[in-house]
Write a structure and sequence with these properties.
alpha/beta; Rossmann fold; seven-stranded parallel sheet; two-stranded parallel sheet; 13 strands; 17% strand; globular; NAD(P)-bd_dom_sf; isomerase; carbohydrate metabolism; EC 5.1.3.2
Length: 342
């Protein structure tokens, strides 16, 4: 079985991707510094797939440790690179943290494989589109000036990867531009596990519903949208995980589009924040305590993706809808209330 390095593999998307890689016959190997995740997720993964994945704890910004790891693991054929700081709001407040962590980790990995063939799947973001001119936005849309340092790191990282793949013939790269991952595994054994105050909408919703938080703040209700709240393309994390497996499989076969390619990973549907809240209330039977607050710096108004290319060329399409997203996230929150992981 092919060994796939999953950086940030104990995190939200990483842990679900480890499960899907195993299901597809791969051997995932995790590297994570646990800065925004728990080592206990390894036990949770083991409960799902029956084996505990290989795990190495170190910071990918440490070039010596990266090189030592690569030298000791010569049978890795692919990398799925999640490890990065990822909160829009925090990046506005602390941009240097984001530029340091997100660039050094990526460059150290690429340098370590300068002379070795490698299939590389990069965790990118729809934030590269900024505020799109046309919706749904497709991969040919212009990459606009980022509205946050986080978004800027994704834009520049894509440029680094495209130029690296063009300059050296050993890199085969796919960048997956995620929309908004939500939900949890159907077992309710893994899901989003934010450290401290959540930065994303859905864990704030579920933590408010369970009583961990007094109220949810909706950042702005005066946007140019039908109900005034921002619109996003929410995608179930299991569907997103499967997209990474599809990307690795395409690279193994040889991507006819060349050594660098990008794909949107979303559902193609947009839901407003208030619609997401209503969907959660319906799926969970819980009434949410929420208030309207001011707009949050760095947020865009509305974005959802055209996923035609992913369907036709990546051979992947989202299968789970908003009801499954909300019900699985609620099942995970209830599991956590009885089985604390942190």
């Amino acid at each position: 079985m092919s060994k796939i390095l999953v950086t940030g593999g104990t995190g939200f998307i990483g842990s679900h991707t480890v499960v899907e890689l195993h299901k597809a016959g791969y051997t995932p190997v995790i590297v994570d510094n646990l800065s925004n995740s728990s080592v206990k997720i390894l036990d949770q993964i083991e409960k799902i797939i029956g084996v505990k994945p290989a795990f190495h704890q170190f910071d990918l910004c440490d070039v010596a440790q990266v090189n030592a790891f690569i030298a000791a693991n010569t049978d890795i054929s692919g990398i799925i690179h999640f490890a990065a700081s990822k909160a829009v709001g925090e990046s506005v407040q602390d941009p240097l943290k984001y530029y340091h962590n997100n660039f050094f980790s990526l460059i150290n990995l690429l340098e370590a494989y300068r002379k070795k063939p490698i299939n590389f799947v990069f965790s990118s973001s729809c934030t590269v589109y900024g505020e799109p001119d046309v919706l749904p936005v497709n991969e040919a849309a212009p990459v606009k000036r980022a509205t946050s340092p986080y978004g800027n790191t994704k834009q520049i990282a894509e440029e680094i990867l495209e130029e690296t793949a063009a300059a050296y013939d050993n890199y085969q790269v796919i960048a997956l531009r995620y929309f908004n991952p939500v939900g949890a595994h159907e077992s309710a054994l893994i899901g989003e596990l934010p450290i401290g105050v959540p930065q994303n909408l859905l864990p704030f919703i579920t933590q408010t519903a369970i009583g961990k938080r007094e109220k949810l703040t909706v950042f702005g209700d005066d946007y140019d949208t039908p109900d005034g709240s921002a619109i996003r393309d929410y995608i179930h994390v299991v569907d997103l995980a499967k997209a990474h497996v599809a990307a690795i499989q395409l690279l193994e076969k040889g991507n006819p589009n060349g050594s660098y390619d990008v794909f949107n990973v979303g559902t193609g549907n947009g839901y407003s924040v208030l619609e997401a809240i209503a969907a959660f209330e319906k799926a969970s039977g819980q009434q949410l305590n929420y208030v309207i607050g001011p707009r949050r710096e760095g947020d865009i108004i509305k974005v959802w993706g055209d996923v035609t290319k992913s369907t036709n060329e990546l051979g992947w399409k989202a299968e789970l809808g908003i009801d499954e997203m909300m019900s699985s996230a609620w099942a995970w929150e209830k599991y956590l209330s009885e089985n604390p992981i942190q």
